[in-house]
Every structure is written in structure tokens, then in C-alpha cells.
């Protein structure tokens, strides 16, 4: 893929550490020649993100809390000081109260419902409202979703409802921005052990289940997600928008666990 992203500038949102899906995507894009900028949430993360950005040759590391409109405005005005355009954007941001990522969806509080929807769903739209002004035809945006949007997965609860709304917003954004030649897609990633995922109840068991029952009989890596992201973010994906691409070792196509049937 060397050179595939040469001359393209991209903003990566949601890098927390080297386990982050954003890191897999950033590495794939940088290896393909892209120039990158990063946004991080909160001062505590800056010291982790700075060296990772430097590893990929980037010194553009800017704060942004997506729950704060002013903070998103500041991010884009700061980015505009450095770059006169933006070719792609990666939104790898989500949040839900982890005490509610177990137990029943039915027990979701109004506060957590609204916060989860704000940070995990509206933020993508809010970011695209600003990004649109810096992007030109050929631009691409990508967000991250999970199978829990489509089917009930244990403990995913409010995040499943939020991801369903996020996937719907990908389609509406694809229509609105398609007129400007900007593509909007999502990757539905299989379970990966990241900081955010560690908040989900029984996550180790969910990963094991996925490994045993997906067609490829393994879990995906952030590198797998990065490589598929490269397709959607580069001109290789030029005809693709409004799509949710499953990078999940095929888990979403399985209707029944593969077992040796008992004699009945
Ligand atoms: P991660 O913890 O590495 O990344 C989550 C990021 O969200 C962090 O960088 C965090 O700082 C950021 N964030 C949270 N609230 C924010 C706010 N208010 N403002 C700005 N940033 C904020 O975990 P990850 O698993 O790499 O998550 C990235 C995306 O991938 C998320 O959308 C997640 O739902 C999605 N996803 C993860 C998995 C998985 O199994 N790990 C599977 C499918 C989809």
C-alpha cells in the first residue's frame, strides 16, 4: 500500500494508547504515506498521544472533548492554522457509563442514554459539520461501530442502541456529503481488547466466543481494522459510501454455532 495515501492529510480522533483501534488505522494510513493530525480527550492522554504521533511523523496533537461544541470548534480552527485542507477523518470515539455495560438495557438511565448518544453518535455529525468546510471532493470519513447495533449482544446495552443510531447517521451523512464528493462509511469491528472494551462485562468471554465461532476462527486485530480502513479512506474505496463494512472475521454471517450435532 506504499504511496496509496501520499499527499493525503487526515485527522485521527480517539487515540488513547497503542491498543486503540485509532492506532491501527493511523499506522496503516501513515505507512501508506498519509500525513496525520491527532486529537485527544483530556490532558492526561496528551502524554500518551504525543509520542505515538511522533512515531508516525506527526507533531499535530490537539485537544478535543467532543461533548463540548466549543472544543470541537477550537480543534478545527487550530487544525485550519496548520492545514489548508483535510482529505480524511477517522472518528474512533465512544462512551457509555461502564456500570451500565452489564446487567439489563432496561435499566439504562436518562443521563447515560443522553451522554452515550451525545459522545458516541452526535459527535460524528458535529465533527462532520466542521470538517465539511475543510474537505473537498475525494474526501472520506470513517467511524467505528459494532455488531451490537444489529443484534442483541450481552452487556452491550446502551452502546448497541447508540451504534444503531450511529450507523443510521452514516447513511444520512453519506447522502448529504455525497453531493460534495465526500464519502462517509463505518467499520463494524469484531471485539478487540482496548481501554474502552475493558469496560464491557464478560469481555474476555465475548472475545473467546467470537474466536471459536467466527468463520476465520480468530479475533481481528487493530492491524486488520487499519488495513480495511485504508481501503475505505483511500481512492480504492472511491465508489463506496454509506457502507458498514464488517471487519469481524466473518462473525456476523454465522446463524448457528458450528458443533458436532448429537444423535437425536
Ligand atoms: P479506546 O478506549 O482506545 O478509544 C476510545 C476513545 O474515545 C478514547 O481515545 C477516548 O479518549 C475517546 N473518547 C471518549 N469520550 C470522549 C470525548 N468526550 N471526547 C473525545 N474523545 C472521547 O477504545 P477503542 O475500542 O479503540 O474504541 C474506538 C472506537 O471503536 C469506539 O467507537 C468503539 O465503540 C469502537 N469499537 C470498538 C470495538 C472493540 O471491541 N474494541 C469493537 C467495535 C467498535
TrEMBL record:
Q: Give the UniProt record's GO annotations in the biological process aspect.
A: fatty acid biosynthetic process
InterPro entries membership: Enoyl-ACP_Rdtase_NADH (IPR014358), NAD(P)-bd_dom_sf (IPR036291), SDR_fam (IPR002347)
Give the active-site positions: 146 (proton acceptor), 156 (proton acceptor)
Which residues does the record give as NAD(+) binding sites? 14, 20-21, 41, 65-66, 93, 163, 192-196
* UniProt pathway: Lipid metabolism; fatty acid biosynthesis
Recorded hits in CDD domains, A to Z, give: ENR_SDR
Q: Report keywords, A-Z.
A: Fatty acid biosynthesis, Fatty acid metabolism, Lipid biosynthesis, Lipid metabolism, NAD, Oxidoreductase
Q: What is its EC number?
A: 1.3.1.9
Question: Which reaction(s) are listed as its catalytic activity?
Answer: a 2,3-saturated acyl-[ACP] + NAD(+) = a (2E)-enoyl-[ACP] + NADH + H(+)
What would be an example GO MF term here? enoyl-[acyl-carrier-protein] reductase (NADH) activity
- Entry-linked NCBIfam families: PRK08159.1
Family indicated by similarity: Belongs to the short-chain dehydrogenases/reductases (SDR) family. FabI subfamily.
Q: What is this protein called?
A: Enoyl-[acyl-carrier-protein] reductase [NADH]
